[in-house]
């Protein structure tokens, strides 16, 4: 019964934290109330266990969590934004302590994998349903105008909740090369992991997924196979670049246009501004400015004017937005998280957690994947699975060592101890 309640809790929390994939047919007030209650309730419970453990990814998550909490104080000090406004706005970014609650509850990794894969499939179904009904906005919002329109050679729908989909396709990718049942199903889902990003014609999405896929199939091959894979990959890229596919052509044209702009590219200018000129004092340069309540507080109205007049958006500058809102200690948490993703070994069946964290790193400079609620719960799940897998592996190693030592002890006793000492040693 307890296990079933835990599954129900996690399934509902994912849906609520993703704002039901930003569904437009659900009243916004209801979604906001549910999101605030579910997220803040989970955080308040999780904080109790925040300092119970050490090692693994505990310190990075602690740094990020405390930085986000303290940023609400900085929003008040530097911008005069009230704590009510800060709490309402920050609730969408503050779920990080859920990591500690998952550790306390000892959620089985296998259970979490099933939930993630189920949501990944749901993401695909809803995306294609929205694509087939592009004239009616059911989920998310158009980039411009009142309905989804053709951009970059395709009807461009940036479907909300991509984090759970990305983690799901990396799970499928990992299982393809494992001795598991239903390999063809995983292969089909991994193929969708390439098709959906291309259909959404988002450069970061496409590049991040393609590079991780390439690495997965490339890493464990012989020199000959690596050469063949590299040649096939290069050949495939050349074919795609020269093929008259509207979506591919649209992405290439946008990339060429932005490359020509150089320092005049709007995201470069926005990044420089938020790094050097935005924070009003030294304290905010260290601890961040907090999350602005868009269009409501004085701070939020300033951000709204900034976007309207300069077209500077925090969502366009990725990890710089984390620094701007939550300060250098949050950046330190992310740097430590990525460092550990390269240095902490994990069993091969859980390689997908590394892939997900590397995907965040690859997209962290020009996309909101590092902090946005569309990705946050998937990031927490990836860190929890990674941490549990590493800790479980260490426990197995210690237990194995103790068993070997215990099995060797009687032989040593026979050789080196008297019968009385031998009996005492065996009892110990």
Automatic annotation (TrEMBL):
Residue stretches spanning the membrane: 33-51, 58-79, 91-109, 116-134, 154-173, 185-215, 227-245, 312-336, 356-386
Keywords: Membrane, Transmembrane, Transmembrane helix
Protein name: O-antigen ligase like membrane protein
